[in-house]
Design brief:
The chain is α/β, with parallel strands linked by helices. It has seven helices and five strands, in the order βαβααβαβαβαα. It has a five-stranded parallel β-sheet with strand order 3-2-1-4-5, with helices on both faces. The chain binds adenosine monophosphate (AMP).
């Protein structure tokens, strides 16, 4: 089975990786850990004062951070017995996750319900929503656990323990 696991640098992405590592996949399954580095630079006055070289240097840094993140996730998945590889693409995450799944002929796309851009009060973040609507294969949305306010307080240590700590400090942003 070919599983395309889309991750950004959010804490929930790390939890999504944990979930995938805990499930019994058919033998011979391959997980491709994909992160898309968004290239859009908003035209603000602040951006206008940066040179193209500065913007490119920032993108290179982002690519390095993303490479570290996906590599750490893939290594961790391999330690659970799954075969995993990494893939980084540059562009629009909504389009490229679906495109990657089609080109690679993935059987399943896995996304978190929320990431960096998803408002917590929405059922799904915008990237997750777009993948669910546009993908031609099945999509597994790993839901972010919503605790009741009161339970939050008493459960804090278990719920709030950052998943990236358990995955070896994968807290880098993408
Ligand atoms: P969002 O819709 O932005 O809240 O993110 C929901 C999920 O979409 C995340 O948990 C990731 O699984 C996936 N996702 C969002 N942005 C990216 C990205 N740049 N690259 C790969 N996956 C992403």
């Amino acid at each position: 089975m070919k599983i395309l696991l889309a991750v950004d640098g959010s804490e929930h992405s790390a939890k999504t990786v944990e979930t995938i590592g805990s499930l019994p996949w058919p033998s011979g399954s391959l997980v491709r850990v994909l992160s898309v580095v968004d290239q859009v630079v908003t035209a603000t006055p602040e951006v206008a004062i940066f040179s193209a070289a500065t913007i490119e240097a920032e993108r290179d840094q982002l690519l390095r951070t993303t490479d570290e993140l996906t590599t750490r996730f893939a290594h961790w998945l391999c330690s659970t017995g799954v075969v995993a590889e990494t893939r980084i693409r540059r562009g629009d995450p909504k389009s490229l996750i679906v495109e990657e799944a089609e080109e690679w002929r993935a059987d399943l796309i896995v996304v978190g319900s929320h990431g960096h851009t998803g408002f917590k009060q929405w059922l799904l973040g915008s990237v997750a929503q777009s993948i669910v609507s546009r993908a031609s294969c099945s999509v597994y949305v790993v839901r972010e656990r919503r605790e009741k306010q009161s339970a939050d307080k008493s459960d804090k240590s278990e719920v709030a323990e950052p998943a990236q700590e358990r995955l070896g400090g994968a807290a880098a942003g993408s």
